[in-house]
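Hi there,

I know you've been waiting on this one. I reran it after we fixed the sequence typo, so this is the corrected version. Both the input and the resulting structure follow.
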Amino acid sequence: MTLKHEKYIYVQLDKNKFAKIRYIKSYEKAEKSNDVNAYILLNKIVTKVSRKAKIVKREDLPVEIRDKLPR
């Protein structure tokens, strides 16, 4: 299972729980990399993540997105 064009990132919630988030790269190019609109929450919690997936910590996300994530 590879991630096509790095469209999705995974946020580590717990040791074995990850939230799947859609990341729009066009905001990165426009120097708005921490813009709230660049992240789309999918409300999908997974336990297994692909080896090639990008995993970020909750602290690396903007505050507005962090508040919307499940605990």
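Quick highlight: The beta strands are 8-12, 18-23, 39-46, 54-57.

Best,
R. S.
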